[in-house]
Amino acid sequence: MTKVTLIENAVVITMDKEDILNPGYILIEGDKIKKVSSEPFDEETKKTAHEIIDAQGNFVLPGLINTHTHAGMSLLRSYADDMSLMDWLENKIWPAEGNLTSESIYWGTLLSIVEMIKSGTTTFADMYFFMDDVARAVQESGMRASLSRGMIGFKGDDSLYEAKEFVKKWHNGAEGRITCMLGPHAPYTCPPEFLNKTLSMAHELEMPIHIHLSETEGEVTDNYKEYNKSPVEHLNELGIFDVPTLAAHCVHVNDEDIRILADNNVSVSHNIGSNLKLGSGIAPIDKMLSENVTVSLGTDGASSNNNLDLLEEVRLSSLVQKGFHENPTLINAYTALEMATIKGGETLKLPEVGKLAPEYKADIIVIDKNSAELYPRHDPIANIVYSCNSNNVSTVIIDGKIVMKDGNLQTIDEEKVYHEADKHAKMITDQDKN
Amino acid sequence: MTKVTLIENAVVITMDKEDILNPGYILIEGDKIKKVSSEPFDEETKKTAHEIIDAQGNFVLPGLINTHTHAGMSLLRSYADDMSLMDWLENKIWPAEGNLTSESIYWGTLLSIVEMIKSGTTTFADMYFFMDDVARAVQESGMRASLSRGMIGFKGDDSLYEAKEFVKKWHNGAEGRITCMLGPHAPYTCPPEFLNKTLSMAHELEMPIHIHLSETEGEVTDNYKEYNKSPVEHLNELGIFDVPTLAAHCVHVNDEDIRILADNNVSVSHNIGSNLKLGSGIAPIDKMLSENVTVSLGTDGASSNNNLDLLEEVRLSSLVQKGFHENPTLINAYTALEMATIKGGETLKLPEVGKLAPEYKADIIVIDKNSAELYPRHDPIANIVYSCNSNNVSTVIIDGKIVMKDGNLQTIDEEKVYHEADKHAKMITDQDKN
């Protein structure tokens, strides 16, 4: 019998045409939302419920969607900071990554999943390696994820075959919570020949592509030197954008690049926290949005952010545009929250995710209102975007299942994850000290 | 008999020459720190203790110092966002502020104090009105504060007399936790004649000055039109900087302005969250720091931030400089945390505050390490600055007294504050709807 869960007495932020229902009521059947209403449930409906959540006036909204991260990198959080990019990569990150194992990626990913669930993220897009272990962590935890085997084209075609196997094994796996993409790392690490092979495979497997694009000024300059065009033009001319594409970063894009992204329905994952911390720069998302590019939000890996708190990215993506352009009307609260919800679903080609509406997946978070920074509440969306601390997320539902209840994880042994992640983090970094 | 409190088994971040003691032990006698050591206490010392806090490996650091806010404005949080500055002020903030009462300021300030204590702030600098009610909230809550009656010079001299009375009544009040400054609002709201009177009073009462300075481009342009010089030059020539001065914002300052600030030991309160949100711009704190200007951090009021989370300001002040200047080595983690601690003490002319060292005031916070974003901990300072969620602050000591223990406020009825603040927030904003 399909499980029925009811949510009562909530301030429901639907992300559906700016509707806020207060009080609002949500009926969940199995993995889906069946009804969102301002009418209380009748006794008949209540009798059918397996679980009733009395939200007591708390905020209820769609689970947040992190469209670009490398979950296993949480093991390298606080390992190397305040360094110039190449010094950081060459002397700290790459050597440590070389020590990563299947087991360490598994625990690092679980650590990231704990952090994401506790801060309200219900779906994440990951690009890394040892992806079977990432998928295993997703399957066990109840998370939703879009997974890509990261591929460096210079290193031969092994990763392509691995990616194909991964797609065959995991696409639509974990009761449908896992979907896949192909993940050529970036134009500067994947030569045209490799990108062509990736494109053929994308057509063959009907897979979208997830790629880093124009993150730093240096890679754009290098691309012009090598191909006499921008990385965006380069990928466009190779035909990459013929398949649905998720482009992460897009910091250094010009007006023509933005037009190409818009014309080809390329979705952008804006990673403002990481872009700031690595000194990459500030992506022109105001322009992208005005050109109707789909812009969503990602944290990037925890070694360059240094957390996976998507509400922080929501706030940053609004504040930084306002401050940088000296215009407080840019990226209003609703637009910022849209990027973390419904636009995230669009970006990950998950049309049933990111909104509280009938037939959408039941990915839902409850934010406890009893915290000083949420008083008063003249405007619930502004409260969430501009003042809310993500630790106020109390209950999280993914695919109709409660994975956190009143702050307690239901599917993961949190203490064990901390212990194992800490142990593996020490192992991979201690090796480089010898 | 003087109360003795011991803190054991902590990761003590002293903010004293980058020393981290792990494990570290702190002996508190009355309102002061007597000893900070890596040696466990002997049985003799333990016998003298009235309270022993076993920190169990948690992070212990100096309480954070918020050097510029308007605490009562928390009642206007989420009341008006995403608006251009003058539209926001003229049509929303000023009319609502006109409805503020003595009681509403009291409850708004308490709401802010709850938020500040819970997020690790132990001292704040406030400039507003109905300051007796602000002082009352500070006295009752156990907070430490530097208070200034905000004065608009265009409105006559009443506020000057009020400020004088306030200083006489409250300076060194609340067992020494309250100190005062004189608060002429800004050069553009205080004509030279009024500033001269303020300066005389500052000399007479031996009070520092707390003033808004060069927050927006518009006020700098206007200052040039009226006086043919920058606001910084203007204040300097009026002799304001002859008394110790706290200048809030300093967003639009040029190299010459920075030199003047440095030469005159003017302390700057950097309010990056508010500066971003209001579209004011990004202060050149990297330059100020390299010229040895004392830079500390402030949240500004909660209606333009929209929270009073100083750890968020710490992170923003580092990330935004790195991103804006495309240089990840700017404002490293230690420098950022210094601005929120020891530099805050310097800014507020509280030389005994902001460091964990003998003879410093016992203003201490404990951050619970058991949270996903604090694992692993290759570098505790990076953990706190770049990934920590301020909700992990578990215990707060101010002036030697425990004001929050394991997340529970000891001096404030939190529920009552939420209820009253909400009620007063509705009252002041409902009036404008009629």
Number of strands of chain A: 17
Kindly report the average pLDDT value of chain A: 97
What is the overall number of helices of chain A? 16
CATH homology-level superfamily of the largest domain in chain A? Metal-dependent hydrolases
Q: Helix content range of the residues of chain A, please? A: 25-40%
Which CATH architecture of the largest domain in chain A?
A: Alpha-Beta Barrel
Specify Rg of chain A, calculated over alpha carbons: 21 Å
What is the CATH top level name of the largest domain in chain A?
A: Alpha Beta
Descriptive account of the structure:
Chain A is of the alpha/beta class and 434 residues long. Chain A folds into two domains: 4-62 and 361-409, Urease, subunit C, domain 1, CATH 2.30.40.10; 64-347, Alpha-Beta Barrel (TIM Barrel). Helices cover 39% and strands 22% of the residues of chain A. Chain A is built from 16 helices and 17 strands. In chain A, the strands form three sheets. In chain A, strands 1, 2, 3, 4, 5, 14, 15, 16 and 17 form a nine-stranded mixed β-sheet that branches. A four-stranded parallel β-sheet of chain A has the order 6-7-8-9. A four-stranded parallel β-sheet of chain A has the order 10-11-12-13. In chain A, helix 3 crosses helix 16. The longest helix of chain A has 20 residues, at 414-433. At the A-B interface, helix 3, helix 10, helix 12, helix 15 and helix 16 of A face helix 3, helix 10, helix 12, helix 15 and helix 16 of B.
